[in-house]
Task: structure prediction
Amino acid sequence: MPTKRGLHLVTREEDHKVTTLELFFDLVFVYAITQTTQLMADHLTPLGIGQGVAMIAVLWWCWCAYAWLANTLHVDRGIAQLAMFAAMGTMFLVSLTIPEAFTDLPGGLYAPLMFVGCYFIVRLLHLTAYFGAARTDPELRKVVLKMFVGLLPSVALLTAAAFFSGWVQLGIWAVAMLADYVNVFRTRSSDWRLHQPGHFAERFGLIVIIALGESIVAIGIGISSYPMSWPITLAAVFGLTLASAMWWMYFAVVAHVSEHNLKRAEGVERVQIGTDTYTFLHLPLIAGIVLVALGLKKSLLYVSDTEHHSLSDGLHGTPIWALTGGLALYLIALSGLRRRNLGSWNVRRLVLAVALLAATPLLELVPAIVLVGVVALAAVGLVLVERRKIVSNPVLHDGSNHSPA
Result:
């Protein structure tokens, strides 16, 4: 039923689906992820990668906040719709300032402060809408106030970081986000509401698709300025194969098991699963995908740019570690999801993650096109092994017994 101020609450009984406004809202994050990938591509150093990962953590926090909100409110109705559009516009400004979030360019507004200001507004709009939804729910209102109190130190630290640079600035960012994340973790067993687990799981599945789409976009951007050739064609196919294998690893079983676990739980347990499985463990999952996209982008550039590179050139330093390390992080996060939902690790995925990291120095010696092929084939090999295990020992994808996820 709508409240007096036009906030329409989601009830336990209804079949709440993802709305077109939520999908429209996600388009801003598509651009934000693209901007973050480009930020790291322009600063291919450990510091640049650190800045990119910190940026992903900030963007993820914004997106998660509205995923939870849309599970509590009908965000496409009443005044909540206005809050969503306002947040979308402000988030677009956040995305525009990403290239200057750490280092301001000469002229114009001071972008680092603009970034923090817009980020604060996005978070404030979310908490305001949540506070309105909790008007008749004292316990939920109390936890929303805790969130606001915990947000203030984080924003203050990000504001201070705007006047520093380099590793000191990144360190302040890390402390700011850690404070915010710890505050949310401490409230995970309190009185948040998660009435529609199917809607919640679908939202996170869609953001994984968006991140995987960025890896495909990275392939296209890497070759867009160069004439097609057989090496480019082969490298592009390898890149798409890797993205497809990553899709299978998540959606074939992991997504089903996680959703089943969320649906079977109630009350505080459901909130804890929602926070642990989706809010926290999906962050390294998304970060891994973005790093793989960066590695693919640079690999395809090596194959395409024959003026500056030959086909025998290998990928070195930060770019290759982004590719192998990103995939390793993705595999570790997937295994962590199994540990949280089924109580045991996926050893095969952990072994491949370690093998990729150990083999990276050797992979620097092979051409970039071979590198992408080896990584793609390793991922496909894992998929085939796990798929064969599923076929030989069928399990329900609803997570009712231990699956290869």
Remarks:
- DSSP finds 13 helices and no strands in the chain.
- The radius of gyration is 22 Å.
- Residues 395-402 have pLDDT under 50 and may be disordered.
